[in-house]
């Protein structure tokens, strides 16, 4: 398990966005070896392409409207809705409207720190 850890308090004004391309950017909100939280911002029409990872992902729609697909099932989610992605499940996101997802991963995503 990773021994890296963010500060205990993460102030939005002190955290930088990472441009992921394709109208998507990410800001890390806190992590240790067991868990990581990130804010993912999508421009309207941006696509988080289908992928899988060994981490459990629990997410909430902070703003906007998204079509979320998990293991072939799609649901339209709006502000306040959430979803759970089991480990290794194929999943994707399409921003129907511009918006933000608040993603939590267990364990942390080492690849997000590279």
From TrEMBL:
Q: Please name one Pfam family that this protein belongs to.
A: Cupin_2
**What CDD domains has UniProt attached to this entry?**
cupin_KdgF
Enumerate the spans annotated as Cupin type-2 domain: 39-97
Coiled-coil regions listed in the entry:
none
Give the InterPro entries listed for this entry.
Answer: Bacilysin_H2HPP_isomerase, Cupin_2, KdgF, RmlC-like_jellyroll, RmlC_Cupin_sf
The record, for PANTHER family, names:
H2HPP ISOMERASE
Instruction: Output this protein's name.
Output: Cupin
